[in-house]
Specification:
GO terms for molecular function: metal ion binding. This is Peptide ABC transporter substrate-binding protein. Keywords: Metal-binding, Zinc. There is one protein chain. This protein is α/β, with parallel strands linked by helices and 277 residues long. Helices cover 30% and strands 25% of the residues. Strands 3-2-1-4-7-8-9 form a 7-stranded mixed sheet, sandwiched between helices. A 5-stranded antiparallel sheet has the order 6-5-10-12-11. A hairpin with a 2-residue loop joins strand 5 and strand 6. It is globular and about 50 Å long. Bound molecules: zinc ion. Zinc ion binds next to loops. The site of zinc ion has 4 residues, from loops.
């Protein structure tokens, strides 16, 4: 049995502030071992539960944050960026039985510690078929297309609430309780590692592949914080304006839908000006 861990950093133990997750800062360096501790604990829990392989896919920023040398020797880690399925790269390899979202967070426009959807500020809302979408919700739809269940979600308490919507069966671990976008009541890495390992062990029983879900068509609407970003997004074929700061497009599969999403975010981030957005 093989488990894929998609590891994002905003929802990691102890993380509440932009510098905590901004590669190159001293504070990011300080938080990397706590992020690694969460991932390490999840992997150990899956092995405890009977998994014989764990692939960790780095899913934050430049996708080089975790400390490989602190992971269990049975773990393999996919590090670095430019991957077909981005945050859930690996699920398409055909041998994954369950996916864990570790260090996840709530979506743009929602309450939650460091809440955002892919771009930290420029995107103010994302909707999938009319429902407000977090990264967790979007990626859960992607993995469903491969017939792989989401079995574990970790992050702040509001991330766990969000996951009730897209992965009701999954085990959830809140490593911190939301106070504001930049504040949380945090539990120590020792405590959260124990909680995550125990939950992952239980979650292993949920790692049973099912018939792939063909749920399309998928309509994604995005709202930006500035009009010119919506205009920039329409460079991507199929993306059309739906309002002053909004665009939408429709994909027939989630594979296509998430890849178009990636094209939109890549073009939009290139159009952001440093001071004025
Ligand atoms: Zn994220």
């Amino acid at each position: 049995m093989k488990i894929l861990i998609s590891a994002d950093m905003e929802g990691a133990t102890g993380v509440t502030w932009p510098a905590d997750v901004l590669p190159g800062t001293p504070q990011w360096e300080r938080c990397r071992p706590m992020f690694t501790s969460d991932v390490r604990a999840a992997a150990l829990g899956f092995f405890d539960g009977g998994a014989d392989a764990v692939l960790v896919n780095e899913a934050h920023w430049t996708m080089r944050n975790l400390l490989l040398e602190q992971l269990d020797e049975r773990v393999e880690m996919l590090t670095g960026r430019h991957k077909s399925l981005s945050m859930v790269e690996g699920v398409q390899y055909g041998d994954v039985d369950g996916v864990a979202f570790v260090g996840y967070h709530t979506g743009a426009g929602s309450e939650g510690v460091l809440a955002h959807t892919y771009l930290a500020n420029s995107i103010t809302g994302v909707w999938l078929n009319g429902e407000r979408a977090s990264e967790g919700l979007l990626n859960a739809q992607v993995v469903a297309e491969y017939g792989v269940p989401v079995i574990l979600v970790t992050g702040d308490d509001l991330t766990c609430d969000d996951a009730l919507g897209y992965a009701p069966e999954a085990r959830k671990v809140a490593v911190k309780d939301h106070v504001s976008r930049y504040a949380a009541v945090c539990r120590t890495p020792t405590r959260t590692a124990a909680d995550i390992r125990a939950a992952a062990k239980e979650a292993t029983a949920l790692a049973v592949r099912y018939e792939p879900v063909r749920g399309g068509p998928f309509t994604v609407e995005l709202e930006f914080d500035a009009e010119h970003l919506a205009a920039a997004a329409t460079v991507v074929p199929g993306v059309a304006p739906t309002g002053e700061r909004r665009v939408a497009y429709t994909g027939t599969t989630m594979y296509e839908t998430i890849r178009t999403f990636k094209a939109v975010t890549t073009i939009v981030s290139a159009a952001v000006e440093e001071q004025y957005g």
